[in-house]
Amino acid sequence: MEMNGKPDVRDWFPSEDGNPAQRKRMLDLIEQLVRGVDELKDPDGVNLKGEKRRDANFYGRLAAESEIPQVGAPMENVNEELLKLLHGHPYHTKYFFTNILPMASIPGMLGMLTAMLVNGNNLWDVYGPAGAEAEVRVIAMMSKLVGYDAATSGGYTTWGGQGAVFSGLRIAIAKAVPDALKRGVPNNLFAFCSEAAHYSLLKSVEATGLGSDRLVKVKTLPDSSMDIADLKRKLETVARMGGVPVYIVATTGTTDAIGIDDISQIRAAAEENAERFGLPCPHIHADSALGGFFAFFNDYDMEQNPLGFSEGVLAMLEPIRRKMQMLSLADSLCFDFQKLGQAPYVSSLFLLKNAADLKLMDLDAEDTPYVGHRGYGEYHTGYTLECSRMASSISMYSLLLSFGTEGYQRLLGQFLEVNRVFREQLIAEIPQADIANPDNPGISTLIRIYLPGSPRFADEIEGTCSAREIERSNQLNERLFEKLGERRDRMFFGDTKKHLLVGSSEGREIPLYVSKFFVISPHTRPEHVHEVVQYLKECITEVCEASGVPAVN
Ligand SMILES: *Cc1c(COP(=O)(O)O)cnc(C)c1O
């Protein structure tokens, strides 16, 4: 359709009447994109093909040359521009091992597309009935998975694991001090998490006005889980000085080492302290953003082993399962579908044991002039920090129906099997390397390398090595980061300069630097591990030789 020689504005939109011509046009445009990405794929590397000159002034140049065109371009041409953005983009091939950056699955994308096709606003079921329906269903499905009562639990989809930690804190404050919403946050409220927790809580205490001085970091054990004895001490100290512990974040699956806090012990410590000092029990949020998906194994029959997992994988699952079966002891928790749920960003689910807690946060009718609190519509999410909300629940719903419990078990089981084989070969093939999260048999293996004669990981966690020796090994590991980083178009490893804090003979605490083999691509299979370990061996040998020490074997 042309108007004054210009295309009709309706051409930019899906049709009103479902006519096949406009449908075909839209599908052709989608196909152009999907085919374009396929043409950029290279299964022997990590990045999509194409040129990107990312020199020092890359972003400066972009800012200088970017302007809104006076007249728009045909969508086919714009698609070509969009595909250029993807040139050199990291892609989840079998060589992609960096952090929790998953591939978006087809059911996940189809769910997002479904949401976009009607573009409902998940704020209110009058505006977004599909999102509301999917949200209620997904909350019930995941509640039943973890052992919450779906008749009384609640929740909503939100902006990341970060958003869930924040939402938990808002509720924690409102539970402990209901009039804090009106009068502001008193200056004696405290939040707790372990040293290995994600920085989400740090941002949350800043944003809610608690202040980071009132965030108490609890020590971790060598398996990266919270040291309960230290938690008890710190809860007591806070209570003795007139403070009120309002929030404890139990990390159930740390972002690097997949350490899992014991929620049952945390709850016992919190209740005991509250009772002793006549305080309310703090709200306990399980930050299960990453690890929560292992709850899919909660009812797996380990004896019959219907999916035929190896003995090694069953042994890895045992301790994970034991801790995940305690998730229902938390007052709230999170499932980051954008992580192990295999959905596109942003799709995280905040789950709450008692939906009634949300009332503490809800807006009054007079404060919401546009929506909700009418004679029509029954689902108005006035308690979320967001106003308008995307219906990411539809993507979650699509995933849960497509994968089913068994699908998640098979995918996560594959990640575990790859790790199992990797750990075995790493130890057999690379004498300079130790596994720095030996007690967390999960989807990530942390690798720390040493020169001959240096104290090894088992010595370092004793807390008695000299700071100089630990730092010398840190430097060596940093050189490995650089080597792996330079070649990240071949295989893409993660790294962190903040794995466990260990003590030293000088008394100073020092974080350990480690490289990360994080299995996150469905395309990485056990048979690929041999090549990966040989590649690592080459890199490690080069780093050690450049440090003036010949390789050990
Ligand atoms: C990733 C992660 C977060 C942050 O989640 P986002 O979805 O990135 O906001 C918080 N906690 C844990 C344990 C995580 O792994």
TrEMBL record:
Pfam families: Pyridoxal_deC. Residues 1-13 have a biased composition (Basic and acidic residues). Residues 1-20 are annotated as: Disordered. The keyword Lyase applies. This is Glutamate or tyrosine decarboxylase. Transmembrane segments: none annotated. It comes from the Bacteria. Belongs to the group II decarboxylase family. Gene3D superfamilies: Aspartate Aminotransferase, domain 1, Type I PLP-dependent aspartate aminotransferase-like (Major domain). Keywords: Decarboxylase, Lyase, Pyridoxal phosphate. Its cofactor is pyridoxal 5'-phosphate. InterPro entries: PyrdxlP-dep_de-COase, PyrdxlP-dep_Trfase, PyrdxlP-dep_Trfase_major, PyrdxlP-dep_Trfase_small.
